[in-house]
Amino acid sequence: MTNNQFSAGLKAGTSIAIGYFPVALTFGLLAKTAGLSIIEATAMSIFVYAGAAQYMSLSLITLGIDPLLIVMNTFVVNIRHFLMTASLNEKMQPARKWVKAIYAFGITDESFTVLATGKKGKIPTAFAFGVTLIAYGSWVIFTVIGHIIGANLPQFLQAAMSIALYAMFIGLLVPSMKGNRKVVMLAALGAVIHCVLYFTEALSTGWSILVATLASSILVEIVYSRRGKTAETMFKREEEV
Prior knowledge:
The protein is built from twelve helices and no strands. It has helices spanning about 1-35, 40-45, 50-60, 65-75, 80-90, 95-105, 110-120, 125-150, 155-160, 165-175, 180-200, 205-240. The model has no long low-confidence stretch (mean pLDDT about 80).
């Protein structure tokens, strides 16, 4: 039964592995052009395993930002994982904490979606391991392949690929902005705050990104929570009338 659930998890996670192919491949390629060795790039995918955060880290590494600030920015970007794993824990079958800790490391936006929607009732631990293992393995393997491809590109193409990092950020951001005012407001406000802090030289680049991310997130949530309360108050008044 456990083997069947593990196989089902591998099958369910295949779509994630296919989706990771271009993203992880590009990360490996850009890691090479950013100056990371194949060991360093692979180690980042093994120990960090966070797509958007890894791309962000590459840009910060290129700028020579303090490692502590890179870690802090990565933490802020990935803080949503606390909520995802806490939510998922309610749907998982009982297991020891160290077992949960292992597959929790493999939870990403994609694997969370598959696990949260792919099973009715309690999710078997073996199924979760199958999903996270194939996703994680594909990310690491495609990172290595991307780095090897980058190493064999002509030098002028390696230099030109540095701009692809910014293109990738835009590619990740724009789809999520479509029809979502909250994301648009968050991105715009974060950009404005960062530009003010950066061009006034009030903070260094790393601290500027960190403060802009936190400040924009807090401000947008305050705005939307107040809107929600206002709408709720108006609804109650209409009911009373």
